[in-house]
Amino acid sequence: MSQMAKRSEPTIQRVSVRQVRPLREQVLRPGEPPERSVYPGDDETDTFHAAALLDGRIVGSATVIRQSPAHEAIADSWRLRGVTTLPEVRGTGCGVLLLRAVTGYVASQGCRYMWMFANPPAVGFYLKLGFQIMDGVQNVVPVGAPHPLMWRLITPADVEQPLGGPSPLA
Length: 170
Ligand SMILES: CC(C)(COP(=O)(O)OP(=O)(O)OC[C@H]1O[C@@H](n2cnc3c(N)ncnc32)[C@H](O)[C@@H]1OP(=O)(O)O)[C@@H](O)C(=O)NCCC(=O)NCCS
Known about the structure:
Blueprint: E1 11-15, H1 17-28, E2 48-54, E3 57-66, E4 77-85, H2 94-108, E5 113-117, H3 123-128, E6 132-139, E7 147-153
Parallel strand pairs: 4-5
Antiparallel strand pairs: 1-2, 2-3, 3-4, 5-7, 6-7
Bound molecules: coenzyme A.
Coenzyme A (COA) is lined by residues 27-28, 83-85, 89-96, 116, 118-119, 121-122, 124-125, 128.
């Protein structure tokens, strides 16, 4: 039998905002002032910051904040922000694990819709995970193409098992 090195699997933990900001700064807003990685609602007690940990290192993050868009059709929503994985782990399932964790959390909060303004290169990723593009609603950003509003219906079936104990990084 061949001896193959066993690859570590990422785990998802609820962490503090302090733990996800460095990744936001590094991957989502390189070269921009750190305050651009601070989102309104980051410090609310029901805001959920998820981190993907691999060998004790944060390699991905996602945040959900109770915040509805101006768009009436999806009132009672939670906003997804700061979704990112390090380039070296992309394509290994971290993004899906993060999305599953935040989706499970908002479902447990009785949320009806989750939404975000999607970075255009990531639209295909969100489509795979059941998000839809809302026609004609975009966020115009200072640099790059406008970000379409994407949304997903949340149902009780999205509730997951609770995440494991306190973060080892807390
Ligand atoms: C978008 C992002 C978070 C995806 O993370 P990831 O760790 O690569 O995701 P996964 O490995 O879990 O990929 C899950 C599936 O989605 C696919 N996928 C990933 N990125 C994709 C993309 N941009 N377009 C289409 N499909 C994509 C993968 O191929 C995989 O498909 P498979 O299950 O058929 O193999 C990551 O590419 C990223 O950080 N991008 C830069 C930051 C960014 O744009 N974030 C979004 C802000 S709105």
